[in-house]
Design brief:
This protein has about 350 residues and is α+β, with helices and mostly antiparallel strands. The chain folds into 2 domains: about 55-90 and about 115-190, HIT family, subunit A; about 195-350, HIT-like (HIT family, subunit A, 2-Layer Sandwich), CATH 3.30.428.10. Helices cover about 25% and strands about 20% of the residues. The chain has helices spanning about 140-160, 195-210, 215-225, 265-285, 325-330, 340-350; strands at about 10-15, 20-25, 65, 80-85, 120-125, 165-170, 185-190, 230-235, 235-240, 250-255, 295-300, 315-320, 335. It has a 10-stranded antiparallel sheet, sandwiched between helices. Strands 1-2-13 form a 3-stranded mixed sheet. Helix 1 (about 140-160) packs across helix 4. The longest helix is centred in the middle third of the chain and has 21 residues, at about 140-160. The protein is globular. The two termini are about 25 Å apart.
Length: about 350
Amino acid sequence: MSIARNDATTSELRHDWLADRWVIIAPQRTERPFDFVHYVDVPNEIVQCPFCWGCESSTPEAVAKYVRADARPSDKWSVRVVPNKFPAVQGRPIISSAADEEPNGSVDRIDLFKRRELNGGHEVIVESPLHLNSISQLALEEVHLVFRAYRDRLRYWLHERKACYAVVFKNVGQDAGASLVHTHSQLIATDLLPPDVLRATERMQLFKQKEDACLFCRMVDDEIQQEDRIVEQTTDFLAFCPFASRLPALITIVPVVHESHFETLDDGKLKQVAWLTHRMVRRIEKCYPQAAYNFVIHTVPGCQEGGEYFHWRLELFPRLTKVAGFEWGSDCYINPLAPEDAAENLRSAGV
């Protein structure tokens, strides 16, 4: 059943329950000059790409390798996981601040200069030995291997290394934070639970307490009933543009049946979500050629005991607008593309 919405030329406020923030949907802002105009990244010529086959010595030694079932004996790898050569997080002992060491946990004065080292790891998932620039250029079997690497490395850091938090993310294009063109993803694991992640987990817990239901399970049911924001659906997964999307054409992929842990997916479901993500990337590339994009896999933090309330999800979003002064000053986002229109555009894109 489709639900009528406000005039497409007027602004409206929509509440994002998970983040507990309001988003301004302002479709009339697409009439401004230069909106949705993209400048193509022209990569600098390089003699050797460190991620290409034959350049393995340019990166740290691989911690994991994956090979296609139909690979030739000479094919050493199809997907390769290596420690980041320039890590944001390194495995080091934690140094407590002086305030943490006060007797009885009390301090006379709030410490505004608290610091400690961050313990964890930072890895790169090189998605192909060929110099390709998009996961959409990979064969489906290769995409399945990439997602196997995501699952296995998250499981290693969360279950074996007991990291408090681990996240897989992909940056494509300079506007999305990428420094190399060769298709790759990254994983960061830390002993710190970032405040925004903690707040999201607390909101999921609160929804469970108030409604005796999972927030995302309810969301899935409502989105399937309303239909307007669905992009594509498989047996076990739903891809949709959330009602209060803070960014234009943001897509969320979630399991239809409640699951907390991405890192424990069986091979059948893993292949399914890999296939669906591959199609969503292709849809974005059809709708918004040359646009930079990111995706992020949110799984239950390792330091959240139980975590049954948590519903894992993958967020995929092209970089179509800039976060500007109002957003930075207010933490209230302005989205110039209504999620219903974004979903319609993405559904119409031939893949």
